[in-house]
Design a protein that fits this description.
alpha/beta
Length: about 240
C-alpha cells in the first residue's frame, strides 16, 4: 500500500483530498498544526469507512520539528505521495501590511513546502515512483488585492514546482501544482458573498473541495505518469 502525506489535511480542501486518496487505496497521514483533534477525527472517519489513515501534528514552519516528525514517519517506509496543502491567509493592502503578515504567509506556504518535501525526496526517489502535488491558488496567476504576500508565496511555489519536476523527471517522480479558484470552504465563505461569486466566476458557482480532490487524485495516479511540471487551474473559467 502506497503512503500519502497531506499537509493541512484538517482544512476544507485538505480533508477532501485525504478522503479521496484513502478511497483510492492509499494509507493517508492527515497532518494538522493546531487542529490535531480535527485531524484525528478525520483519520478515524476514514478508518471507519474501510480506509487506512492516521493523524500527525507539527508546524511546517519549524524545520527541526518537521524533520523530526517526518523521520519517525519514514522509519515505517517511504512516503510516495505528498500533497502540500498547508497555507494561511493574512490579508492587507501592501501599504498597511505588517512585516509579520508578509513573513508568516510566505513561511507557511513556501518554506513549509521545502521543510516537508525535502526529507521525503530521497526515499521516494529510491522507489522510482512518487508524486509531489502542491496546492496553489488562482491568486498566484492573477494577483489579488490585499494578498501580495499570499500571491507571492504561491507564485514562488510555481517556480519550485517546475524546477523540482525537472530534477526528478528521470526518477519516476512527478511534481505538479493545482491552482484552485473560489472553492466552497469556510475560509472562502467569509471572503466571497454569493453575489461576488456570481460576478467573478463565469460558471456562476464556487467549486467544491471534492472537485479539487478529484484532480489531485488523478495527478497522484499511475494514469498521470507523463504529467509533470504543470500548474493546473481549477477555477470555473475565471482564467
Amino acid at each position: 500500500m502506497k503512503k500519502a502525506l497531506v499537509t493541512g489535511g484538517s482544512g476544507g480542501i485538505g480533508a477532501a483530498v485525504c478522503r479521496r486518496l484513502a478511497a483510492d487505496g492509499l494509507h493517508v497521514t492527515v497532518h494538522a498544526n493546531s487542529r490535531l483533534q480535527e485531524a484525528e477525527r478525520l483519520a478515524a472517519e476514514i478508518v471507519a469507512a474501510g480506509g487506512s489513515a492516521r493523524a500527525v501534528a507539527f508546524d511546517v514552519t519549524d524545520r527541526g520539528r518537521t524533520w523530526a516528525a517526518l523521520e519517525q514517519l519514514l522509519a515505517e517506509g517511504p512516503i510516495q505521495v505528498v500533497v502540500n496543502s498547508a497555507g494561511i491567509h493574512d490579508d492587507a493592502v501592501m501599504p498597511a501590511m505588517k512585516p509579520e503578515q508578509w513573513s508568516r504567509v510566505i513561511d507557511v506556504s513556501l518554506n513549509g513546502f521545502y521543510n516537508v518535501t525535502r526529507p521525503l525526496l530521497l526515499p521516494m526517489m529510491a522507489t522510482r515512483w512518487g508524486r509531489v502535488i502542491n496546492i496553489s491558488s488562482v491568486a498566484a496567476l492573477t494577483g489579488n488585492r490585499g494578498q501580495a504576500n499570499y500571491a507571492a508565496a504561491k507564485a514562488g511555489l510555481h517556480g519550485a514546482t517546475k524546477s523540482l519536476a525537472i530534477e526528478l523527471a528521470s526518477r519516476g517522480v512527478t511534481v505538479n501544482a493545482v491552482a484552485p479558484g473560489i472553492i466552497a470552504t469556510s475560509m472562502s465563505a467569509d471572503a466571497f458573498s454569493p453575489e461576488a461569486i456570481e460576478r467573478l466566476v463565469p460558471m456562476k458557482r464556487a467549486g467544491t473541495p471534492e472537485e479539487v480532490a478529484g484532480l489531485v487524485a488523478y495527478l497522484a495516479s499511475d494514469a498521470a505518469s507523463y504529467i509533470s511540471g504543470q500548474i493546473i487551474s481549477i477555477n470555473g473559467a475565471i482564467i
